[in-house]
Amino acid sequence: MTPNRLRRRAVLGLPAAGLVGTTLAGLGPSRAVAGAPAILKPLPAEAFVDHGTNAETRWESVDPHCYLTEQSQLFVRNHTRTPRIDPASYRLRVFGDGLADAAGVTLGLAELKRRFRTVEVTSVHECTGNGRSFFESQQGTKASGTPWTLGAVGTVTWQGVRLRDVLRWAGLRPDAVSVQGVGLDDEYVDKGENLGRVRRPFPIAKALDDALLAWGANDEPLLPDHGFPLRLVLPGWVGIASIKWLGELEVSTSQLTSPWNTRWYNIGGPLGANPVRSAWELPREASFPAGRTVRLTGRSWSGAAPIARVEVSTDGGTTWATARLRPEPGPRTEGHGWTRWTHTWHAPVPGRHELLARATDLHGRTQPDVAASNPNGYFFDAVVRHPVLVA
Ligand SMILES: Nc1nc2c(c(=O)[nH]1)N[C@H]1C(S)=C(S)[C@@H](COP(=O)(O)O)O[C@H]1N2
Ligand SMILES: [Mo]
């Protein structure tokens, strides 16, 4: 590194006096912010829990026969609201002292598609606050943030180009260490403080590994809510890493930071890969007729590796059985998604029961009985106790 190199920084996040007009305070669960809805796609009540600017998928609405999550079913996590972006005038700016020419380059969508090889990557797409409500309901320690149950997750096959191909073409320097994506959505105001545009840096190693600039999800153009026309996808990583409506990429020879890797999404260091989690494809308090055998279904996933094993209990954790993992369709793409599983519950007796599922991934990471608590409620990876009624 050159000690005297000129540090270029994006002029972002500087609070503009008097512009802090639209805080979310007092709007409660309303999706209307200054007239415009925060989420544009329909959120039918049978498929989504509406959390205001965020919405989670109901597990009971997940079709056991469908492996991928259609965008119409995918959870949405918006810091402000979904912007409408004209694809014709859209440009991505790539710049920073990590490029041979720090002024960088700009690319339109058509040029991006023409210039670089299209790849497909299947990945678990998940908000790292997924499961947050269980810190309070299961462990008695309330965490601040959207009270997700387990529906802030999906599995998507993304179409796009490798970030590494774009960075190399843009003149990546060998001493670049950090890349930061910046969204084109409104600046984020938290309790009166303007934090600027949603942005988060990540190490160059992830950029050179499997990071993607994606314009498609499951062979369809991205929906506006999911980042149209272009988003970052950092497979397996905390959802915040996958910046939607990507307007800028800064490449730097020094560590970049933003509130989204220091103040948030940080537990003793910036968070990377998501942990292991499992969900039953059932509503809470689902009911079953007594004495009849039921075929239960669910899914498990990990940000780091495919799932190796799932154990289930139908008696609150007293006895355990091995769930039958479905042989998922062979990988048509790179990456990995979740694993579906089934368990046959023989003639349950009347009463209240708790269903538990505990997965282990191929790296040997598993789900603990208690998740490590942290103020913002990230990484709830403990085995969730799912109450059901047999009558
Ligand atoms: N520009 C921008 N990118 C963003 C966000 C955002 O609010 N603005 N939210 C992040 C978070 S916290 C998550 S979990 C994912 C959610 O992606 P989705 O809404 O497409 O499911 O997007 C990430 N990227
Ligand atoms: Mo998130």
Itemize the secondary structure elements and their pairings.
Layout: E1 32-33, E2 36-37, E3 48-50, E4 54-57, E5 76-77, E6 92-95, E7 105-107, H1 109-115, E8 118-126, H2 133-137, E9 153-162, H3 163-169, E10 178-183, E11 189-190, E12 193-194, E13 199-203, H4 204-208, E14 212-217, E15 220-221, E16 231-233, E17 246-252, H5 259-262, E18 276-280, E19 286-288, E20 294-302, E21 307-313, E22 321-322, E23 324-325, E24 334-336, E25 339-345, E26 351-361, E27 386-390
Parallel strand pairs: 6-17, 8-24, 19-27
Antiparallel strand pairs: 1-2, 3-4, 4-5, 6-7, 8-9, 9-14, 10-13, 10-17, 11-12, 14-15, 14-16, 18-20, 20-25, 21-22, 21-26, 23-25, 26-27
Bound molecules: the ligand Nc1nc2c(c(=O)[nH]1)N[C@H]1C(S)=C(S)[C@@H](COP(=O)(O)O)O[C@H]1N2 and molybdenum atom.
Ligand MTE binds at residues 74-79, 125, 127, 183, 185, 198, 226-227, 239-240, 242-245.
Overall description:
By secondary structure, the protein is mainly beta. It has a domain of 114 residues: Immunoglobulin-like (Sandwich), CATH 2.60.40.650. The protein is built from 5 helices and 27 strands. Strands 8, 9, 14, 15, 16 and 24 form a 6-stranded mixed sheet that branches. A 5-stranded mixed sheet has the order 7-6-17-10-13. A 5-stranded mixed sheet has the order 19-27-26-21-22, with no helix packed on it. The longest helix has 7 residues. The N terminus is likely disordered. The site of molybdenum atom (MO) has 6 residues, from loops.
